[in-house]
Amino acid sequence: MNLVSHTAPAAVTPRFMPVESDCMEPTLRSGDLVAVVPVDTWHGEGIYALEMLPGALELFRCAPDYLGGLVLSRDNPRYSTRTVSREWFLAHVAAKVAGTLSLLDRGLMERAAAGRLDHACGLT
Known about the structure:
The protein is mostly beta strands.
């Protein structure tokens, strides 16, 4: 038997980013966490974090249009859609959303953040 060595690609550790508005509801809610991978180019349709102001990232669903540009939209219909050039996109792209962190107990997270957890739960 001849075994072929296979080396896995280098592991990528995603970064977690909080969703800070209702712009991607119902897909993502304010307070959810998304796993993002830093990118500096187009990696196909999906949700991207774009740097709209220095240091301020916003989430957009991005898809190509038929003229060679990219359509930036939000999942919440209250927000407008716009089309940008690929050059504009490349100047603003910071990361692509690779996944979400699903919170099973949002109330627990909110109480922990506010320092209101009761630590007398009987576990040692």
